[in-house]
Amino acid sequence: MSVTLASAESTPFEIAQAATSAETHETPADAHAAQPAGETHTETGVAHGDEHATGVFPPFDQTTFASQLLWLAITFGLFYLLMSKVVIPRIGSILETRHDRIAQDLDEASRLKAEADAAIAAYEQDLATARAKGNAIASTARDEAKAKADAERAKIEASLQEKIAGAETRIAEIKAKALADVGAIAEETTAAVVEQLIGAKATKAEVASAVKSAAGE
Amino acid sequence: MSNDPTHQFLVNKIVPIEIGGIDFSFTNASLFMVATVAVATGFLYFTTGQRGLVPSRMQSVSEMSYEFIASMLREGAGSHGMKFFPFVFSLFMFVLTANLLGMMPYFFTVTSQIIVTFALALLVIGTVVVYGFYKHGFGFLKLFVPSGVPGALLPLVVSIEVISFLSRPISLSIRLFANMLAGHITLKVFAGFVTSLSALGAVGVVGSILPLLMTVALTGLEFLVSFLQAYVFAVLTCMYLNDAVHPGGH
Prior knowledge:
The complex is a heterodimer.
Chain A: H1 2-9, H2 11-24, H3 28-34, H4 65-198, H5 204-216
Helix pairs in contact in A: 4-5
Chain B: E1 13-15, E2 18-19, E3 22-23, E4 26-27, H1 28-47, H2 57-77, H3 85-102, H4 114-136, H5 154-198, H6 202-207, H7 209-245
Antiparallel strand pairs in B: 1-4, 2-3
Helix pairs in contact in B: 1-3, 2-3, 2-7, 3-7, 4-5, 4-7, 5-7
Subcellular location (chain B): Cell membrane; Membrane
Organism (chain B): Shinella lacus
Membrane topology (chain B): Multi-pass membrane protein
């Protein structure tokens, strides 16, 4: 633990030292020459064959530049090729397909809308003609029915009139007959009443004249 | 791992290669360049494998990065600049993936090496210069002569323009390099405080809570910086490419 602590405490000092050495020693030759043995970096895990890890600030260590440039050229060149030949055409085609598809769908939608509008217009036209036709049929039917009903009623009224007339003549006949019968009944009743009252039979002629005079009043 | 905050930037040989006396070893830096390419390509390739009309979540990420760079380039350099789309897209994805991979503990940060960012910046400026002269010939030099400047001021303005042009690769490379370097050093220093303080006993353990919280917060910030620096690199690339495409147009 104490070792860790010591190395940790030396940290700010190391930064300062590394920065100074980076500023003052521009060339690697200088850096190598000016590097005292037993620099603080020896305690780090740099041991695996890195002879330039000698205290020059690592990003300014010019001995690594050639290798970094070469590998950057290789990797970035490869990356550029992969991007321009594979990835960009691929994403580009995906986006283009989507764009085309959306445009196509919009066209389709507007076409369908036009169709729907035409269908609505045709439907309304049909509806209007059907309504007109329906009205015509209804009015002719009504007229016909009315005419027929009128004729029927006239016929029925005529026959009823006839029946009423027949009935009236019959009533008149029956009445006349009944009135005639009333005279005979009155005479009989009168004769019976007179006989009961005075005990003598009245002649038929007398009774008839008496009834006639009473009826005549 | 030692507590030395610069240890993480050390370049170690993995496969020593030497050609003509020059050291071209395959190092941990090379390994993480290869890893960056593999991760970025693998992600973009496999997430778009379904070619879904309705994208999956991961496919959306790939499509978003594509459209993000495409709109950035179109706004920065116009539709004529779109021929550089593979270049800007590769740059952005490479820098972003390298930055994000560098956020993993024990991983090497490719973009924390000045030579890498400087090479990428030179590639950008080189592309601008070569394409500018190829497309416009000496008309490309109109870039340094803004229109509407009085004749007396012209030498001054032109020299300022030339200096600002020459400083572009430097500012472009230093910005990315310094951001990644400083962020990683800061993280390492605060994390180092946690271990050294907690070694001091109970009081130290309590005291180490503060740098621990700081480390957590800085980690979040560094992820933001990783994205932001890749974005800034790509945006500036688009602006510089605009000069190559339209040299008289500013």
